[in-house]
C-alpha cells in the first residue's frame, strides 16, 4: 500500500513539476550571458510558442519525469514505511532519530539507484540535443536504449553520487 501510494504521489508530482523542469533546463543550458537570458515566464512563453503545451513543448520529457518521480517515490515510501514498521522503536530520542534517519538514508539511496536511468533520460530529452536542429533524444525508453548502446551501462548512472548525496539524507 505504501509503494502504491508513493507511486501515485510521484506521478502526480511529475505532472505538476515537469513544465517547470523544462523551463529550468532550458534556462540552465542557455549559453548566453546571464544578463541576456529571458525571465522564466518569457522562457515558458517561448517554449509554448515553439512547441506548444505537448511533448515537444512545455511537457517535453513527461514520460521520463513520470518514471523518475513515480519510481523514486514508490521505492522510497514502500521501503521506508515497511522497514520502519519492522525495526523496533527506541525510547531514547537520539537513537530513535538515528533509526529513522538511517532508514530514510537507505530508502533514498536505493530509490536513487533504481530511478537514475529515468533521470538521465529526462536530462537528455529536455536538454540541448547533440546536433542542433536534430532531435536525437525523443522518448524515455528509446533514450535509455540509445545511451546504453552508445555509451554503455554506466552512462545510465551518470550523476548518481551527487544525487545520493542530495536525496539520501533528505
UniProtKB/TrEMBL annotation:
Record's keyword terms, sorted: Membrane, Mitochondrion, Mitochondrion inner membrane, Repeat, Transmembrane, Transmembrane helix, Transport
GO cellular component, as recorded: mitochondrial inner membrane
InterPro entries hit by this protein: MCP_dom_sf, MCP_transmembrane, Mito_2-oxodicarb_carrier
Main location (coarse class): mitochondrion
Compartment(s): Mitochondrion inner membrane
Membrane topology per record: Multi-pass membrane protein
Reactions this protein catalyses: glutarate(in) + 2-oxoglutarate(out) = glutarate(out) + 2-oxoglutarate(in); L-2-aminoadipate(in) + 2-oxoglutarate(out) = L-2-aminoadipate(out) + 2-oxoglutarate(in); 2-oxoheptanedioate(in) + 2-oxoglutarate(out) = 2-oxoheptanedioate(out) + 2-oxoglutarate(in); heptanedioate(in) + 2-oxoglutarate(out) = heptanedioate(out) + 2-oxoglutarate(in)
UniProt-listed SUPFAM superfamilies: Mitochondrial carrier (SSF103506)
Chain positions of Solcar repeats: 1-86, 95-170
Main function: Transports dicarboxylates across the inner membranes of mitochondria by a counter-exchange mechanism. Can transport 2-oxoadipate (2-oxohexanedioate), 2-oxoglutarate, adipate (hexanedioate), glutarate, and to a lesser extent, pimelate (heptanedioate), 2-oxopimelate (2-oxoheptanedioate), 2-aminoadipate (2-aminohexanedioate), oxaloacetate, and citrate.
Family from the record: Belongs to the mitochondrial carrier (TC 2.A.29) family.
Protein name: Mitochondrial 2-oxodicarboxylate carrier
Organism from which the protein derives: Nicator chloris
